[in-house]
Design goal:
The structure holds two protein chains of two kinds. Chain A is mainly alpha-helical. Helices cover about 70% and strands about 0% of the residues of chain A. Chain A has one domain: MetI-like (MetI-like fold, Orthogonal Bundle), CATH 1.10.3720. Helix content of chain B is about 75%, strand content about 0%. Chain B folds into two domains: about 45 residues, no CATH class; about 230 residues, MetI-like fold (Orthogonal Bundle). Classes of the chains: A mainly alpha, B mainly alpha. At the A-B interface, strand 1, helix 1, helix 3, helix 4 and helix 5 of A face helix 1, helix 2, helix 4, strand 1 and helix 5 of B. Chain A: InterPro entries: CysT_permease, MetI-like, MetI-like_sf, Sulph_transpt2.
């Protein structure tokens, strides 16, 4: 295993409980009851409340709220930017994981810590952090505050760890003999990577990409100070939901929230399918 | 660690192209994380310790810091108890709906913090939430009060302990626990003497990660807190408020404190973990 795996999104197969196990005893059954009750009160009932509130105005009400010009602009911007960021993460995350596993150099430990910073840093601080280099007083002389690039950059920052941390452990456990065999049979570096390495890490890349997409779609804190939240331009879905809440319009807030929840749910299902497929193969 | 160094000596790792990769990766992380992070430190200390001292003597900020710590610690305790319990149930027992529960437990990680806040308000809101008015009639205000902020924080950090503990429990197996039980230990003794010492590190990582996440929660807390100065304003909300009120020095100083704790949490985990795995 690699030294740090701070970020959720372990390699597939690591945490799926086996089908075996003891039947519930009276004490453990009680424990399960309490845990389920708590989980329902905290997560399941509130999330259902969002769905119920969104459906309160019927399908027409929901559709009207979601297709409102300003709202649909926020959804398009959020999903589009999240997709773009996920693509960048697939390439850069895999590359970073590769360097961290296969290379040795002075300062690598520092890079390891840097990768986890976006995960632990409060999102509002993340926004401030990016603003200090890419904002009005930038020492680089660039000012991307209040533009769509700011949204892209904020997403890129907060999603940095996901692909890296899912790919890294898988890459570290790869058997080098397969690569050596391929190389000795005359495969070039590119062929070895594409035919030997890539197939083994693809599920991990997909899992990391799904997590980073889900995270980006729901991002809020890092954008508050950075993107200016200009309607039709840099406003993202979460900000739109918040302003609906603040304007005492919970129905429209819930409608947009349901769109985001549907995306999260889809991501979770995709992750689960990927994990099961890998389990079957492994 | 050991297997990584052998890998690095394989022919593929020795190609000259690796310097290019190394450079690309280092530059990417430098521009995305390291330099911006450094600038927050520099902006904080632009006029010595003055802005840090200002922040630390501002009663509103001190109150916010204290509130943040109280909420985060409460949330971490709740999540640790719940997380260890549910991990044991998921790994050691078989029950209907286990798979669904396992999938649902990951849900909080991919829900937008604003949606978390909205969901809690819709159920526990004092005016027209599902349970809110009843609870408020019984004297328990949740939304726009500390209990709601704790709930929001617990929600967003919920899966972190579980994600650390479940793999450890799986690798551990249950032979030792069975042995203890067959020798007459009851469930509590088995847990305290056998299980807990073996999953100790998993629990500690989970706690540190949850702590970092809980201290920094912003969006969900913003929705449920009402952001009342001196009452329900947490440190992350102070950063926003100070920045928007053109008190940039104060915003940077508060952000610096929060970043310091976050980075400390990461370093603690990354220092502890390899030792244990060696």
């Amino acid at each position: 295993m690699t030294s740090t795996t701070l970020v959720p999104g372990r390699p597939a197969g690591n945490r799926r409980p086996a089908r075996t196990g003891l039947p519930l005893t009276r004490a453990s059954g009680l424990g399960l009851g309490v845990a389920t009750l708590w989980f329902s009160l905290l997560v399941l009932i509130p999330l259902s409340a969002v769905a119920v509130t969104a459906s309160g105005g019927g399908w027409d009400g929901f559709w009207q709220a979601v297709t409102d010009a300003q709202t649909s602009a926020t959804i398009r911007l959020t999903v589009g930017t999240a997709l773009l960021v996920t693509l960048v993460n697939i390439v850069m995350g895999t590359l970073i994981a590769w360097v961290l596993v296969r290379d040795r150099f002075f300062g690598k430990r520092a890079l390891e810590v840097l990768i986890d910073v976006p995960f632990a840093l409060p999102t509002i601080v993340a926004g401030l952090v990016l603003l200090s280099l890419y904002g009005p007083n930038s020492p680089l002389g660039v000012n991307i505050a209040n533009t769509r690039i700011a949204v892209f950059l904020a997403f890129l920052f907060v999603t940095l760890p996901f692909v890296v941390r899912t790919v890294q452990p898988v890459l570290a456990e790869l058997d080098p003999q397969a690569e050596e065999a391929a190389a000795s049979l005359g495969a070039g570096r590119y062929t070895t990577f594409r035919r030997i390495i890539l197939p083994s890490v693809t599920p991990a890349i997909a899992a990391g990409a799904a997590l980073s997409f889900a995270r980006a779609v729901g991002e809020y804190g890092s954008l508050v100070l950075l993107s200016g939240n200009l309607p039709m331009r840099t406003e993202v879905a979460s900000v739109r939901i918040l302003s609906s809440i603040e304007n005492d319009n919970p129905d429209s807030a819930a409608a947009v929230a349901v769109v985001l929840l549907a995306i999260s749910l889809a991501v979770i299902v995709v992750l689960d399918v990927i994990q099961r497929r890998v389990m079957r193969r492994g | 660690m050991a297997d990584r160094s052998t890998l690095a000596r394989t022919p593929i790792g020795r190609r000259p192209g690796r310097y290019v990769l190394r450079l690309v990766v280092t530059a990417y992380l430098f521009f995305l994380v390291a330099w911006p992070l450094y600038l927050v430190g520099r902006n904080t200390f632009a006029d010595g310790f003055a802005s840090l001292a200002d922040v630390l003597t501002d009663p509103d900020v001190v109150h916010a810091l204290r509130l943040t710590v109280v909420i985060a610690v409460t949330a971490v305790v709740i999540n640790t108890v719940f997380g260890v319990g549910i991990s044991l149930l998921l790994v050691r027992y078989h029950f209907p709906g286990k798979r669904a529960l396992n999938v649902l437990l990951d849900m909080p990680l991919s829900v937008s913090p604003i949606v978390v806040g909205l969901a809690l308000v819709l159920v526990y809101g004092g005016r027209d939430g599902w349970f809110g008015p009843t609870l408020e009639a019984a004297g328990l205000q949740i939304i726009f009060a500390v209990p709601g902020m704790v709930l929001a924080t617990v929600f967003v950090a919920l899966p972190l302990v579980i994600r650390e503990v479940v793999p450890v429990l799986q690798e551990l197996g249950d032979e030792q626990e069975q042995a203890a039980r067959s020798l007459g230990a009851n469930a509590l003794q088995t847990f305290r003497r056998i299980t807990l010492p073996s999953i100790k590190w998993g629990v500690i990582y989970g706690v540190v990660l949850s702590l970092a996440r809980s201290l920094g929660e912003f969006g969900a807390v913003k929705v449920v807190s009402g952001n009342v100065l001196g009452e329900t304003r947490t440190s992350t909300l102070v950063v926003e408020e100070k920045y928007l009120n053109f008190d940039k020095a104060g915003a940077y100083a508060t952000a610096f404190l929060l970043a310091l704790v976050a980075v400390a949490c990461i370093i603690v985990v990354s220092v502890l973990r390899p030792k244990e795995e060696r």
